[in-house]
Amino acid sequence: MGIYIGRLGKEMTRIEEEIKKKGYLLADGATGTNLFDMGLESGYSPEFWNIEFPERVKTNHENFIRAGSDIILTNSFGANKYRLALHDAENRVEELNFEAARLAKESTDKFEKLVFIAGSIGPTGEILEPLGALTKKDAQAAFKKQALALKDGGADLLWIETMSSEEEMEAALLAAKESSLPIICSYSFDTHGKSMMGLEPSKLAELARKFYPDVIGYGANCGIGASELIGSLICFKTSKKNEDLLLVAKGNCGVPEFRGDAIVYNGTPEMMAKYARHARDMGASIIGGCCGTTHVHIKAMSESLESYKPLIEKIDLDSIIKNLGPMTTGNIAMINNYLNPGSTKIAPKRERKRKRR
Q1: Pairing of β 256-259 and β 246-251
Q2: pTM
Q3: CA-CA distance, 52 to 92, in Å (whole number)?
């Protein structure tokens, strides 16, 4: 389909300028996890808190900024027509997204440092045609309403995240493009290194190139742990064809565990600090945390990256697994296919030893 022509020319955006100066930018951590700790009840829309408890939303933003975040995501992940309809609030899209961005702006205005506001756009929760009933046109219309409200509220860029289907990602990108804001997009990859809809990392890379220069970066978020996400980054790094596109990492804080009635992520600040360095080694220039990540983890990541010089020559799966936890054999097989096309090797040494026990 050729190259997608969007933003006029290829002038560097402000966020790209900052990355060029610093080498990387640190994003924030979880929204839902931290709002749950402030009293958000399971099943309740976090976006309602933009109206009901704005100070709590701003506190979460400000905690991350103090911890070192250069980018904060708005509390708008599920603020599209289809997800809000689950709460009989489909007519509140503009209001909730505008307030999400406005609260983020109020938070950043309290600090002297430059902090970018990324308008978070998550999936509709519906399955698009041909497998589902939602048309691409209707999905695009829903995302456009969200994107424009985030822009009006003060977002500096749009951050499309946790997608798993190409049809839905493309609908979101087409909608976001109409805002004229820079765009970052990410898939969530599962145990075999593919998205829930079976897409591997190269498919997102192709889509990002198609929408360049409107899209300035792409990567992975959420998934099933920091180790698996670094595996996805390896695939992005080895298949990258447009060096002007940024790589993005926003991994979960370890993996979830049940402790009593609560779900707790087992990643420590020390582990997330190592994850941040591995992400830099894999070429990521925007690094943050997803589910389970608090400002304490972000502070550890900030301190870890501050004077770190990334290793750019060697990809060591054994070291990644030792520091961040095991990878599934499906993801390892995917990585090895990217590193050594046609190779039959499917596991690093640590994985093989574990299998012999």
Answers
A1: unpaired
A2: 0.92
A3: 14
Contacts of 232 (CB under 8 A, 6+ apart): 189, 193, 201, 219, 220, 223, 331
Pairwise CA distance, residues 35 & 263, whole Å: 14
Residue with tokens 């909608």: 175
Contact between 253 and 289 (Cβ < 8 Å): yes
CB contact set of 195 (below 8 Å; sequence gap of 6+): 163, 164, 165, 187, 188, 189
The pLDDT of residue 265: 85
Residue 114 has pLDDT above 70, yes or no: yes
- Report the alpha-carbon distance of residue 80 to residue 126 in Å, rounded: 11
What CA–CA distance (Å, rounded) separates 272 from 256? 14
Q: Which residues touch 183 (CB under 8 Å, ≥6 apart)?
A: 157, 158, 159, 160, 173, 176, 177, 211, 214, 215, 216
Percent of the chain at pLDDT > 90 equals 83
Q: Does residue 134 carry a pLDDT above 80?
A: yes
Listed residue (96, 98, 71, 215) closest to 154, CA to CA: 98
- For the residues of 252-321, what is the DSSP string, one character each? -SS-EEEETTEEEE---HHHHHHHHHHHHHTTEEEEEE-TT--HHHHHHHHHHHTT-----S---HHHHH
Write the CB contacts of 276 (distance below 8 Å, at least 6 apart in sequence).
26, 287, 301, 304, 305
Q: How many CA atoms lie within 13 A of 98 on its CB side?
A: 8
Q: Please, what is the average pLDDT of the chain?
A: 91
Mean pLDDT of 218-244: 95
Nearest Cα to 100, choosing from 145, 37, 49, 33?
49
**pLDDT, greater one: 332 or 357:** 332
Query: 3-class DSSP state for residue 350?
Result: helix
